[in-house]
TrEMBL record:
Phylogenetic classification of the source organism: Bacteria, Pseudomonadati, Pseudomonadota, Gammaproteobacteria, Oceanospirillales
Name of this chain's protein: PAS domain S-box-containing protein/diguanylate cyclase (GGDEF)-like protein
Complete-protein stretch covered: 425 to 702 of 714
Organism in which the protein naturally occurs: Pleionea mediterranea
EAL domain span: 23-276
Domain of life, per lineage: Bacteria
Length: 278
């Protein structure tokens, strides 16, 4: 059994080496990603539950890796963050999403707004508000056209971020707290930070019919957020029962595969025209 343990250790070591290798490989590839134009945004619709009207779209980053292997944002975004590349990529995302919104409107698709995901590192290392203000001006758009989704984990031990968020709020940007219910933050963040909207995490939404605890959590979190005056959007809505449940609970908006999957801009327009009113 001693032999076995040693063998296990070697295996473990090899697994770590493999992981480190893959990471540095990804890092190398990611350094060239903007120059090589391998990034793409997919768009997922968001709707008002009651009316079924489209309220906006979330832009989600996709990497068309040359090897054609799919690399999930869950894997490559942490690498962008640890290398600082997220600053330039994040600016690209914001600009691309706003240009898309403008183009859709010119084509007659009257999308109310576009949402982007913003990482903690971007708020700390980049003067993102100034960049956004400049880009909006250039494209003849306003801060209300843009929603900024920020995850809860961002706020740990950081005093820069509340200031940046307040500044963005004062400029008129729409701020959404992403993955609500899963982060490390205390509920006091809700009243201390200038959010307009709470995004209920999909882990609660997915299990509302099957897990009593998820149903209770979803109900309570929606009620709490509404009482405090926030708008609430649920993510990860995958079927009509979840949709109906959320509507009954007074949730304002929904996003998820039941409404539409994240797709490239051309398919987004088809999806919308086929199923939704604007
Ligand atoms: P997120 O912001 O929580 O985005 C929602 C994720 O859930 C997306 O995964 C989306 O494709 C997926 N999703 C949407 N509807 C459903 C559904 O009905 N069921 C299920 N099971 N999943 C659904 P994706 O696109 O893989 O993105 C993963 C995460 O990567 C995002 O989570 C976000 O945190 C991050 N991310 C994506 N794009 C960007 C970006 O441009 N910048 C930054 N900083 N982060 C990004
Ligand atoms: Ca998000
Ligand atoms: Ca989320
Ligand atoms: Ca997430």
């Amino acid at each position: 059994s001693k032999h076995k343990a040693q063998h296990g250790f070697q295996f473990y070591n090899a697994a770590i080496t493999e992981k480190v290798h893959r990471r540095s490989q990804l890092e190398n590839d990611l350094r060239k990603v903007l120059a090589k134009k391998q990034l793409q945004l997919f768009y997922q619709p968001q709707v008002y539950l009651e009316s079924g009207q489209v309220s906006g779209a979330e832009a989600l980053l996709r990497w068309n890796h040359p090897s054609k292997e799919f690399v999930s944002p869950e894997e490559f975004i942490p690498v962008l963050e640890s290398t600082g590349l997220i600053v330039s990529v994040g600016r690209w995302v914001a600009r691309q999403a706003l240009m898309q919104l403008k183009q859709w409107r010119e084509q007659g698709l009257n999308l109310p707004r576009i949402a982007i995901n913003v990482s903690a590192i971007q708020l700390q290392k980049d003067d993102l508000s100034s960049f956004l203000i400049e880009t909006l001006k250039e494209l003849d758009l306003t801060p209300a056209d843009l929603e900024i989704e920020i995850t809860e984990s961002v706020f740990i031990d950081n005093d820069v971020i509340p200031k940046v968020l307040q500044e963005m709020h004062d400029f008129g940007f729409y701020l959404a707290l992403d993955d609500f219910g899963t982060g490390y933050s205390s509920l006091s963040y809700l009243t201390r930070l200038p959010f307009n909207k709470i995004k209920l995490d999909r882990t609660f939404v997915n299990d509302v019919q099957t897990k009593a605890s998820s149903e209770a959590m979803a109900k309570s979190l929606i009620a709490l957020a509404k009482t405090l005056g926030f708008e609430v959007i649920a993510e990860g809505v995958e079927d009509s029962q979840q949709y109906a449940f959320l509507n009954d609970q007074g949730c304002d908006e929904a996003q998820g595969y039941f409404i539409g999957r994240p797709v490239a801009s051309e398919q987004f327009i088809e999806q919308i025209e086929q199923f939704y009113k604007l």
